[in-house]
Design a protein that fits this description.
Elements lengths: L1 H9 L4 H24 L2 H12 L13
């Protein structure tokens, strides 16, 4: 791993790729967070219920207590 880090340190302007990658990650994270928070509660409830529906039927799977 030391060989790779030494090689990358010698390349001029390589830091810009780290900055661009970090900006893309942060931007994507913020967009997904905002879209999730803006979803209506009704739609979120449908998503939660769809996880409990077995094989496309409308029967909900009841958890065993």
């Amino acid at each position: 791993m030391k060989i790779v880090s030494n090689l990358l340190e010698q390349i001029e302007g390589i830091q810009i790729y780290y900055i661009i990658g970090l900006l893309i990650f942060v931007t994507l994270f913020v967009v997904i967070f905002i879209r999730t928070m803006r979803k209506p509660n009704k739609e979120m409830d449908e998503i939660k219920k769809s996880i409990l529906i077995e094989n496309g039927s409308e029967e909900l799977i009841e958890p065993n207590n």
